[in-house]
Write a structure and sequence with these properties.
The complex is a heterodimer of chains A (110) and B (914). Chain A is α+β, with helices and mostly antiparallel strands and 110 residues long. Chain A is built from 4 helices and 3 strands, in the order αβααββα. Chain B contains 27 helices and 22 strands. Chain B starts with 24 loop residues before the first helix and ends with a helix. Classes of the chains: A alpha+beta (110), B alpha+beta (914). The interface between A and B is medium-sized, with 24 and 31 residues.
Chain lengths: 110, 914
């Protein structure tokens, strides 16, 4: 946690959220934690933006939500990928990888 | 451990109608318990609050977790909370944003659900309608007739009889008429100098114009054709503010500056006779052998007078300027904006007074609104017909209502079960709404088609007559009105009764208490009431129609003064350039008559000008009685005159009362021996109490001796008051366009072609037109009235049909409900006959009430019709008796059939049925 987290690139927030949920349903706090841990602190989604993204994705039908019980018996809202969400994740991830590969290839050797 | 409640945000992929609306656990359970007490509109607002609450909770939970995390890292609780809040970001914005997203999602799903339900409702409705074809057919047909046929009949009448003129501010247009009470000349046209005088009154009138109908032979290409038109004086076109389609329209000056040998064509004439030639302006047409330059073409929507094809300026010669007695100009004027009709009346009175003072006659001037003048005498008829439309509409609605009520009764169970399974009330209402709407829309669509079809049908039927049905369109207002009312009725009566069913307690209904007293008694009363209303309405319509029919009969029976029989008359028009002297004209007619006389089967043949009931209106003028000059202060003498052949009166069947008719010696002598015949009315008016034979009158030309008195005839309308008419012989005066009359024992169609052949043999350039028997012409004159009678009868028949259907349906339904009761009666020994009598008696009681109410209404309402009836009183007993008997017979029939049906059910089955 020594270095400050990176600025999120445009449009990658939704991708991250979807990616986080690929591992199973989670509530908003859980998604934030997941992203931070998996990126080893490099990425930290602002809470406000995260919840906005979650609700937006829900409206678009890419995730579904239902109330459930958290680990400490709190009522929490759990999000899960829908079929459409899974498909969108696959597509976006593939694009992202190709993009990253391409940029890396261009920057190779600099 | 709490199980999660059914998710509210999951979409309903199946959308089954009986699936409960899942909007949170409590809601769901409550719905079920309350049997569907969902309130859709408040629902949305609650959702708003609930959504906000949930968003807030979610975010609160997050903040708590974040706080715990920070506390676990060693930060004091209060600081941790603040830090968590700071780390979060814009909380307020997020709250709003998330709430908005959620609400949008809710709405989206809501609509998807609704549309899914709607689709299913539509499918269900169509399936249900298909499964009860009888109900569907009757309901749709009833609606179709009520909307379509109704509107069609009215549209036709409206456009045919009313004939509005396309002009801005039509309420400012008036027609000026005059009376000469001393001569018993009422409601006549004006003379040209009088028109000029009125045109000078620019303080009252914006523009004044006048026209007289005329006709010409159009020759040039192909067979000669007779075209109708108008000769106009003053600023005729400007009165209507017409702008030409091509070229220009001539003005008042053309009548006085010598440039009157020009014409303007109507749009129809331009299309028909010049093939819409765009370069027609400047070209000439051959009218009556004279070349007339076409200076303009009128626009398509201007048709006044209605069948005018050619317009020419009146040639106002100095002599014509003096003759105040030629009452031939139909005068139209546009009032100045600030002049009221009352002021106009006063001004006309003053003007007439000035004329009377100056010219020593006694005239009364008055004005009639243009629309009134043309449709005035038919206004009452139109109102009656509009009333008929409303009546038929009411009956149709009552019928549809009945059908819906009956149907709803049978579905109480279904509705209650749906409600029990959790379908909200709103859902049920929507279902029924869709059902009723599908029915109503079907009915409306068929109605629209039926309306158009009816018009086409009537147009074809009427093509033989004079009415121009080709331009009739289904009147949008009437169609919209009838459609609206019918659809509202269909929907209201489809939804309301079933709504009441949702209130009924579940248990009672499920236990088959469906024949609970309250519901079905009220329904029966409603049904019976509607039958009473239907019968009453049908009766009123039938009485009205019956009175009109008898009125028409009387009109046709009334004396016309001559014997139409099978006398055939055909108009010819001699080209003035070729036949420019009396001897030439005489030679023509004699040649034709000779040929006709030679044909076997021809009894009598002659010629006549301005026959009764023809399009020619004849002429009238002042005259003098030789030896008895008009004393000062006395009105001038005025009478109509005609020009006829020797055998005219015999051909027309006009009786000779005194003296003799024309003989060869009369007209083959020198002009000094002019003779004239007068009619009875002439004799009584101008020679009261004395023998007119041998006296002499002077109608402009030299004196003529009265040699005989003939019977008076009706000139234009049956039953009109007679006018004084004098008859001159055609060989002694101008006779450019006469009709050839043939009375024979030959078939009328053959006579027509005989006349054509004869004329063609003598001169092939002379057109023969308007060939019809006198009987046809008389009938034609009542064409408008006959149309109205037909329309009204159509309405009455329609209403009877609908009412009968209604009675049949209601009786059928009520007896079916009583199957059990009937079964008991029969099991207890009642015979089938007794059962039938019982049902019929009850049915007739209801009908009887309807008849009584109907009679009462008819007695009152027909008094309003008194103005358009002829020869029958509004309370004509024959009509009432016939109509009442008809209704009694019809309702008896409608009652017996279902009664017999009910009585022939096996008692056992009846007892077991529900």
């Amino acid at each position: 946690m020594a270095r400050a987290p990176l600025q999120l690139l445009q449009g990658s927030l939704d991708l991250l959220v979807l990616g986080a949920l690929a591992f199973g349903p989670a509530h908003g706090y859980g998604v934030a934690t997941h992203v931070r841990e998996r990126s080893e602190g490099a990425l930290a989604i602002e809470d406000a933006a995260l919840y906005q993204a979650l609700h937006r994705l829900e409206r678009k039908g890419l995730v579904s939500a239902e109330w459930g019980l958290s680990e400490n018996n709190r009522r929490a809202r759990y999000y899960a990928l829908t079929g459409d969400g899974r498909k969108r994740l696959r597509e976006e991830a593939a694009i992202w990888r190709r993009y990253a590969q391409a940029v890396s290839a261009v920057l190779e050797g600099t | 451990m709490l199980k999660p409640c059914p998710p509210y945000s999951r979409g309903h992929k199946d959308g089954g109608s009986l699936r409960p609306q899942n909007d949170g656990c409590d809601e769901w359970i409550r719905n079920l318990q309350n049997g569907g007490r969902e309130r859709p509109f408040w629902y949305i607002r609650r959702r708003h609050e609930q959504v906000q609450a949930e968003v807030d909770e979610e975010l609160r939970v997050h903040l708590e977790m974040r706080t715990e995390e920070l506390v676990a890292a060693g930060i004091p609780r209060d600081d941790a909370r603040a830090e968590a809040l700071r780390q979060f970001g814009d909380l307020e914005y997020t709250r709003r944003y998330c709430r908005e997203q959620d609400t949008r999602k809710e709405t989206q799903m809501h609509w998807r659900l609704r549309i899914g339900e709607l689709r299913q409702d539509l499918r269900d409705s169509l399936r249900k309608l298909r499964r009860s074809p009888g109900f569907t057919a009757v309901a749709v047909l009833t609606l179709a007739f009520g909307i379509g046929a109704n509107s069609a009949i009215f549209s036709i009448i409206n456009s045919v009889l009313v004939r509005p003129v396309a002009t801005p501010e039509p309420e400012r247009l008036v027609i000026i008429r005059e009376d000469l009470p001393g001569l018993n000349l009422l409601n006549t046209e004006l003379s040209p100098p009088e028109v000029i005088d009125l045109a000078a009154r620019s303080d009252i009138f914006e523009t004044v114009g006048a026209y007289r109908p005329s006709a010409w032979n159009l020759t040039g290409s192909g067979a000669p054709v007779r075209v109708d038109g108008a000769i106009t004086l003053g600023d005729f076109f400007e009165v209507f503010r017409v702008r030409p389609h091509l070229g220009r329209l001539y003005t008042a000056e053309n009548s006085t500056n010598g440039q009157h040998q020009i014409v303007v064509l109507s749009y129809g004439a331009w299309q028909q006779h010049t093939d819409s030639d765009p370069s027609i302006i400047g070209r000439t047409l051959q009218l009556d052998g004279q070349a007339r330059e076409v200076v303009g073409v009128l626009p398509r929507d201007f048709q006044y007078p209605r069948n005018a094809q050619i317009y020419q300026p009146f040639n106002l010669t100095p002599q014509a300027r003096q003759r105040r007695g030629t009452l031939i100009m139909i005068t139209v004027a546009r009032l100045r904006a600030e002049v009221t009709h009352a002021q106009l009346a006063g001004q006309l009175e003053a003007e007439a007074a000035r004329w009377n003072e100056q010219f020593k006659y006694r005239k009364v001037l008055y004005a009639v609104a243009l629309a009134e003048y043309h449709a005035g005498r038919l206004r009452a008829v139109l109102l009656v017909l509009m009333g008929a439309v409303v009546f038929v509409l009411l009956i149709a609605c009552a019928n549809v209502a009945n059908l819906q009520l009956v149907r709803a009764a049978g579905r109480t169970r279904e509705v209650a079960v749906r409600a029990a399974l959790g379908a909200g009330r709103g859902r049920i209402v929507r279902q029924l709404l869709v059902e009723s709407s599908v029915l109503a829309i079907l009915g409306g669509a068929v109605g629209l088609w039926l309306g158009a079809f009816t018009i086409k049908l009537l147009a074809r039927w009427d093509s033989a007559q004079q009415h121009a049905f080709d331009s009739v369109r289904l009147d949008g207002t009437v169609l919209g009105f009838t459609a609206l009312v019918s659809i509202v009725a269909a929907v209201a009566f489809g939804v309301l009764p079933a709504l009441r069913a949702t209130r009924v307690e579940l248990q009672r209904v499920l236990r088959d208490e469906s024949r609970g007293a309250a519901g079905s008694l009220g329904r029966s009363r409603l049904l019976r009431g509607s039958v009473v209303v239907q019968i009453a309405l049908a009766l009123v319509l039938l009485v009205g129609s019956g009175l009109m029919i008898r009125s028409l009969e009387r009109l046709l029976e009334s004396e016309v003064g001559f014997a139409p029989g099978e006398a055939v008359a055909a108009q010819v028009a001699l080209p003035a350039s070729k036949y420019n002297t009396v001897p030439k004209q005489t030679a023509f007619y004699n040649a034709v008559l000779e040929r006709l006389r030679a044909m076997p089967g021809v009894t009598t043949t002659s010629v006549g000008w301005a026959l009764p009931f023809s399009d020619q209106i004849g002429d009238s003028s002042t005259f003098e009685v030789v030896g008895r000059p008009v004393k000062s202060g006395e009105p001038e003498r005025h009478a109509e005159y005609r020009v006829v052949g020797s055998d005219y009166f015999r051909a027309m069947g006009i009786p000779l009362l005194r003296g003799r008719t024309f003989e060869a010696s009369d007209y083959l002598q020198s002009p000094s021996g002019h003779v004239v015949l007068i009619d009875e009315y002439f004799a009584t008016q101008f020679f009261p109490g004395e023998d007119p034979l041998g006296r002499q009158i002077q109608h402009g030309r030299g004196p003529a001796t009265i040699i005989g008195v003939v019977g008076s005839v009706a000139q234009r309308q049956i039953g009109e008051p007679r006018k004084a008419v004098s008859y001159y012989h055609f060989q002694q005066t101008w006779s450019g366009w006469m009709a050839i009359v043939v009375r024979s024992s030959i078939d009328a169609a053959v006579v027509g072609s005989l006349i054509r052949t004869s004329v063609r043999e003598v001169d092939s350039e002379v057109p023969v037109y308007d060939i019809a028997t006198m009987e046809q012409r008389v009938q034609r004159s009542v064409g408008d009235r006959r149309l109205a009678v037909m329309a009204l009868s159509g309405f009455a028949g329609l209403s009877l049909l609908l009412a009968m259907l209604g009675v049949y349906g209601v009786v059928g339904y009520t007896t079916k409900r009583r199957t059990q009761e009937i079964g008991i009666r029969m099991a207890l020994g009642a015979s089938a006959g007794e059962v039938v009598r019982m049902v019929v008696r009850e049915g007739m009681l209801v009908a009887g009430l309807g008849i009584l109410i109907g009679l009462g209404a008819a007695l009152v309402l027909t008094r309003l019709m008194a103005g358009i009836l002829f020869g029958v009183g509004a309370h004509d007993p024959v009509t009432y008796i016939v109509v009442t008997s008809l209704i009694v017979a019809v309702t008896l029939l409608s009652t017996i059939v279902p009664a017999r049906h009910a009585a022939h059910v096996e008692p056992v089955l009846a007892l077991r049925s529900e």
